[in-house]
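Model it.
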Amino acid sequence: MLACAALAGCATSVPPSETDGAAARAMPTLVLQEPTAEIEYGSFTEDQLYEAIISELSAQRGQVAEAGESYFDLAVSTRDITIIQRAIQFASVNSDINALLQLGMLWAQLEPTNPQPQLLLSIQFLESGAFEQAISHMSRVLELGGNMDFAVLSSRTSRLDPKVRAVLIENLRGLKGEFSNQDSIHLTLVQLLAQNGDFQEALTELNLLKEDTEPTPNTVMLEAQILQNMDRSERAMRVMRSGIAKFDTDKALRLSYARMLIQNEEYEQAQKQFQILVEQDPQDWETLYSVALLDTQLQNFDQAIAAYTKLIGVNQNADDSHYNLGLIYQEQGNLDKSIENFRQVRIGTNNFLAAQQQATRLSIQSGRLEDAHDWLSQLSRGQPRLEVLFTTIESTLLIQEEHPDAAEQLLNTALNKFPNETDLLFARVLYYDSQSDKEGSERDLRQIILMLPEDSRALNHLGYMLADQTTRHEEALELIERAIAISPDDPAIIDSLGWALYKVGRYEESLVQMRRAFAAFPDDEVASHLGEVLWALERFDEAMRVWQDALETDPESPLIAEAMERLQVAE
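Modeled.
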């Protein structure tokens, strides 16, 4: 006999994974028999007994992987049930699926009427994605009198190929007839049919299930989701309202109803449902944040401000709340509070850069250029990469808000500190572009290309400038061909290539590239170019259609108007 110290009790379980829709069920738990103070291990050789003692000592020293390997070998050599169960514990801790499968097979062979090894095997086959094998062992659990919730299957099959899922559906149909008293099989069949897009059949099966079982929040949500996918929104809403009336304290059901209302753009009704959830659980911060977002959407700004302020006070969704408060105060014209909240968004969070950019924009727009610069300098102190990034953001905003002298001074100062920093050079190119200083732009672009010959952005920018604003068209084409070789699928570079080909008179080749660019990125600039190439090919009606379609999308486009005026096109 050997006294065996347990790792952390003698139960091993597989944790639940994310579920799909109404199939929100936990993974089944495998419970191994609790050991007594001393465990009868059977007849061991002296070597086997010694190996068991060494394995336990290894476990106590934290060498769980080594203990697991030793116990696996012992389980195979002794075929002792208690050793097998102990080996399973170690394999589970080590997440060794291969060992768990082999141990499960051995256990099932030694105890063919015990549902526990079948449950273990079903769990591991589910984990490894071998769903047909999993179903086989799940059904065997039922045959042996064990309990099995088949809903765990549907939580793993949402991304399967439909043909593979169809095979599982047929297996479930057979099991439904064999185990007619197992509602979870029928429910899982409904879920898989819905996952396969067979919504009418899923609804038919669900109605049959409802004849024999009482409704649950999960079946209510499942029915509503199926109806919603069938574009029967009104009936889906009726199902949800009926379910809410019956299960008025079920959080998941009410949350699903609120989300469905949002999906159907019934924002005020959704807001009411979220508000009820908050009243039922005042410390449900995620729901309170959803209420605040809906109040923002509905422009109920006072309620939204109160909710965001409360969330900030308890440090829940604080950064997102500061960002949204910044947007609200900006909308209300309270720039001081807007800037204050944008600046409270912390580095490393989702909206950090957007918040700092917006705070800087508002500061510059209100004439507080020095304050904007001081804040960004303080925020990036000791972080060179962040300082460079903030400089590019600040210079762009200064140019947009018509402070070119301040932008030039900022960039020159930064380049003195970080000479030949390509992002700063490119930012100064944009400054030179804004001042129509082609020589300055070309000088910095060539410096970037000298340092980074594979920089397709700089190659394209210089090539397009030469094609569009000079007569150096062959040189432009050479630069753009280098850029397209590096980034062959970039629509901007494809458009530049088409434009350069047009400038050198290769109209048919230009048209091919322009159509590619327009298919990938149909904005007004590409439309103006495409129309001009078609016009050069005397395909006047087609050119007019391209321009007119672009004007329908953007009636104020100066690029379309300029092209038509230059070519003296009569609308």
